[in-house]
Write a structure and sequence with these properties.
337 residues, alpha/beta, Rossmann fold, 2 domains, 6-stranded mixed β-sheet, binds NADP nicotinamide-adenine-dinucleotide phosphate
Length: 337
């Protein structure tokens, strides 16, 4: 059996789950783990991510030196949402010739916000025989790759609508914090403006990924989001939201052509929603409607997408890639055969 050496960069809730579920794949061998939190550095990674046993890998902060020594095939990265803040971390992996998959939302379609950084990453990746991919559940799969793939049996497509409604009380603490749960509206708006919280990141990236897959040549892409305010006190999943405070966010990504909305992405994350679901509507010939009545659990699904893309990325040509350029993924046991 081929063994794939992997490193995990960032041990927050997502990176911790990557360690946990990565170790369950018999073909993956963890060789390094990185974080900057002094409470994590220097400890065994098994202990840091909440496993019952030690793994034999110590959490390090000296990324370059340890990558150079351990030489992973792939680095799985989960530290931040904005590429301008984390691209030097991506380069750490690229410089040792490792492939890298990151959950950084703006890396899923990096050309939209960061064309210059994208150019540099692509050049460096090609120079060092490394492949870079940004993905996750959203952006990265549910509201972009999946609707794009769903248009395959259509002879004609006029409009794509993709929506996702999730119960924020079931999500990790860092997610609840970034959508401003419990704040008053004024403070929510101020924190969004200052960048202290981001709410959801990736509406425009999802629109751009669909546009790239269908070669839509959109005239423009718009995105916006707003707080959802509790009309009465809500107590759910250990969270209490007072009446008049933020109980979630709702936002949209829109792709326009000739004045018409031809792509519309909608995402709602709130405490106290009645039903979690995803829905994709393809207006075309034929008209297609798909609905996942269960809703996809965002944190573990993000980790699954990352892990299932490992074989795809390892087999891809070097360079900065977007998911709509790569072989379609699936749950993958490739290296176990
Ligand atoms: N595309 C998707 O579908 C998707 C889904 C889920 C999450 N995400 C994104 O993935 C990222 C990770 O999620 P999360 O909830 O685990 O985030 P998080 O709670 O912010 O955790 C990030 C971890 O990385 C550490 N870190 C920050 N800068 C670092 C650096 N330079 N070197 C090493 N470690 C560093 C942080 O340490 P400190 O705490 O000390 O700063 C923290 O332990 C977030 O940006 C999130 O928005 C994307």
């Amino acid at each position: 059996m081929r063994s794939i050496k992997f490193a995990v960069y960032g041990l927050g809730p997502i990176g911790s789950l990557i360690v946990k579920y990565g170790l369950e794949r018999s073909w993956m061998e963890l060789v390094a783990a990185f974080d900057i939190d002094p409470l994590k550095v220097g400890r065994d990674v098994g202990e840091v991510v909440g496993l019952d046993e030690k793994v034999g890998v110590i959490v390090e902060k000296n990324v370059k030196e340890v990558l150079d020594k351990t030489r992973p095939d792939i680095v799985l990265h989960a530290t931040g949402s904005y590429l301008d803040k984390i691209y030097t971390q991506i380069l750490d992996a690229v410089k040792v010739g490792a492939d890298i998959i990151s959950t950084c939302e703006t890396l899923s379609y990096p050309y939209y916000r960061y064309p210059e950084i994208s150019k540099k990453l692509d050049e460096e990746a090609k120079k060092n025989s490394s492949t870079i991919l940004g993905t996750g559940i959203n952006p990265g799969f549910l509201l972009d790759l999946l609707p794009a793939v769903m248009t395959t049996p259509c002879l004609k497509v006029e409009k794509i609508i993709a929506r996702r409604i999730i119960d924020a009380s079931k999500r990790r603490e860092s997610f609840r914090k970034k959508i401003g749960l419990g704040l008053d509206k004024k403070m929510f708006d101020e924190k969004i403006k200052s960048g202290e919280i981001t709410a959801h990141v990736g509406y425009a990236e999802s629109v751009c990924l669909i546009s790239h897959a269908l070669r839509l040549k959109l005239d423009s892409v718009k995105e916006y989001q707003e707080a959802i305010i509790a009309e009465k006190e809500i107590e759910l999943g250990g969270i209490k939201i007072n009446s008049g405070k933020v109980r979630g966010v709702r936002g949209f990504g829109i792709g326009l052509k000739n004045g018409e909305e031809i792509v519309k992405i909608e995402f709602t994350a709130a405490v106290g929603i009645e039903e979690e679901f995803e829905e994709i509507i393809i207006e075309g010939l034929p008209k297609l409607v798909w609905r996942n009545l269960n809703g996809t659990p965002g944190d573990t699904a993000t980790v699954a997408v990352v892990l299932n893309y490992v074989p795809v990325v390892l087999e891809s040509e070097p360079g900065l890639k977007i998911i709509t350029q790569l072989k379609p993924p699936s749950y993958c046991t490739y290296f176990e055969q």
